[in-house]
Structures are given as structure tokens and as C-alpha cells.
Amino acid sequence: MSALASHRKPRGRTAISTPAVGFTTAALAGVTLLSSQNASASPAAPAEPKPSIEDVQKKVDDLYRQAGTATQKYNRAKEATAEQRREVGKLLDEAAERTEALNESRRALGGYAAAQYRSGAVAPTAALVFADSPQSYFDQTQLMERLSDRQRSAVSAYETERAAAAKQRAEAAKSLEALTASQETLRAGKQEVQAKLREARELLSKLTAEEKARLAEIERRKAEEARRKAEAQARAEAEAAAAAEADRERRRAQEQQAQQEQQGQQGQQGQSQGSGTGSGTESGSGTASGGDTDAGYAAKAGKVLDFARAQLGKPYVWGASGPSSYDCSGLTQAAWRAAGVSLPRTTWDQVKAGKRVATEDLLPGDLVFFYDDISHVGIYIGDGMMIHAPKPGANVREESIYYMPIYGSVRPA
Length: 413
Description:
By secondary structure, this protein is α+β, with helices and mostly antiparallel strands. It has helices at 2-6, 13-41, 53-118, 124-130, 134-138, 141-146, 149-205, 209-269, 288-310, 328-337, 347-350, and strands spanning 355-357, 367-370, 376-382, 385-388, 397-400, 406-411. Residues 1-10, 12-42 and 276-289 have low confidence and may be disordered.
């Protein structure tokens, strides 16, 4: 029993471990408390402030403008791609014609080779057809001397067509490479436009109803300011038109007075002056050409405006040129086409397609361009107003030309 008793665990050992557990728990609690105190003492990272409505409005406008610029890049790439596609098609058609001519020459040589084979010998023409390098074989003078005139002519035609076909294939391959590069540029441009528009939509989607109402109020004030400037432009145009009409009336009165005085002098001179008295009565002919030019432009501009007004309410779609939707330069191009005038596709090219005019000298039908990067264009209709395809989510509408910063204006015809 004593031996067994010597192997028993002392009952007091359990009591010895208890303080250790209690100490560990207390230590952990202390560490936790200290960590909490340190965390509460260290300042939390400041939350990023929410942008103001004015900042959102500026950002969205900037994104739309960037999308407009990217759209013009896309339009230019699309136009270049279409031109390259036509060029590649033309080259492939020519290559097919060359290939047919080459096959015809090859058939002629084959006929000679077959005839020589039937005669029981591998004659020079047959050797030529089966040679790995016909050109090197032709260079052998003794071979050429053994060919007949008809055979020599067939060999020459074959070589000519073979070289032309090879050249045509090389040109077609080069054009195809350029077309592939343009198509890649086109895809990249499309992705860029879509990314800008997607970012603008995401910004707008995060606004509350109250913020959207405030944004609409900002837009309303902006439009009101642009309208006041348009009204000032309309008054200036009316005053200029009245002054021009008064000047024309004054000149007509002066011309009539001069004619009456001339007729009075001619009457006093009597019939002794002969029949030469009618030679000075053709006054005013020098001003007719200017009036005819103005009338011709006004007639074309009338067709442009009729077309543009018929598109009011149709949606803006980037890259579109009608008839159901338009982007800004697609609308101006289509409108002037209705008047018989061909304009380039992009704003960057349209701004070069006509006579530059000052804002105060604008006439209906003129094109007004906006922003430093010339990424937007509208059709002037008079009184400081224009018709344009504004931006994604909006329809073709009338608006003040002062709604956006003006770059310059052009009279296309």
C-alpha cells in the first residue's frame, strides 16, 4: 500500500496551477485593455469628403466633353477604316484578276509541256514547268534559243503575270495589316467613349433625389445665363440688320437722285448729243454679285435649317450620323448634305471646311464650334441660338450658343 501510495499525485498540485491561470488571464486582459487604449488614442483615418454638387456637375460635364473628343477620334478612325476597307477590296479584286491571268499563262505553258511529253521527250518547256526556279532556268541562253517564238512569248507572259501577281499580293497584304491596325484603333476608341460615359452615369447614379434637384437647378441657372447672352446677340443682330437696311435705303436714294440729275442734264443738252445718252444708266451692277452671293447662301442655309428642325427630338448617339439618331458632327454633316454641300465627318475637319466668321457676324446656317479641343459643333439659326445634338441622354434641340465656350465659327459655302 505504501508503494502504491508513493505514486499518487499530490492533491495540492492542482491548487498550485490556479494562480498561473489567473495571472495569464489577467495579463491577457491587461494587454487587451492596453491595445484598446492605444487604438482609442490613435486618431482614425479621416473619411474622404463627399464631393459637392458643383464638383459633380463639373466632373460630369468634363467626362461628357472627353467622351465627345473620344467620339471624334472614333469617327475619324471609322472613316479611315472604311476607306482602307475599300482599298483592300480593290486590291484583292485586282489580285484575283492577276491570278486569273497568271493561270491562263500557266495553262498555255502546260499545253506546250503536255504536247512535248506526248512526243516522248522532256522538252525545255516541260522542264520549265517542273523547275523549282523558273527564272533561273530562263536565264540559260541556250534554253531560250531552243524555244519557238510562240513558246518564248508564252514564257514571257507567264513571268510578267507571275511578278505582277506577287506584287499585287504584297500590296494587298500590307493594306490588310493597315486595316487591322485601324480596326484595333477603332475598338480602342469605342472602349474609351464607353468608359467615359459609364463613369459619368455612375457619378449621377450616386446622387440623392435632393442632390439631383440641386444639380437640375444649377443647369437651369446656366441655361438662363446662356439665354440672356443669346437675347443680347439677337438684339445686336437686329440692330445690325436695321443699320444695314438703312444704309441700303440711303444708297438707293442717292442712286435715284444721281440718275434724276443725270437725266435732267441730258434733257438740257437736247438731241444734239446724239444717241449716246443711254450709256451711263447701268449703275449698281457692281453690287449685284454680292447680293447674289448672299441670296445663294441664304437659300442653302434655308435647306440646312429645314433639315435640322426636322431632326429635333431625335436622340444623341455617339458615332451616329442619322437618320434616327446623331452625334454633333453627324448632324451638321447630314444637314449640309441636304443642301448639296459635302462636309467632312469630324469637328476637327469641319472647322477647316469653310470661311471663318466672327461670332457677331454669324448668319443662319453657319457652324459654331466649342471648347479648345473643338469637340462639339452646332448649326446657328439666328438670335444667338443653334440646333445641335448635345450629349448622351439628350435629344437634338435648340439652345443658346453661349451655353458652352465658343471656339470659333465657319460658313461652309
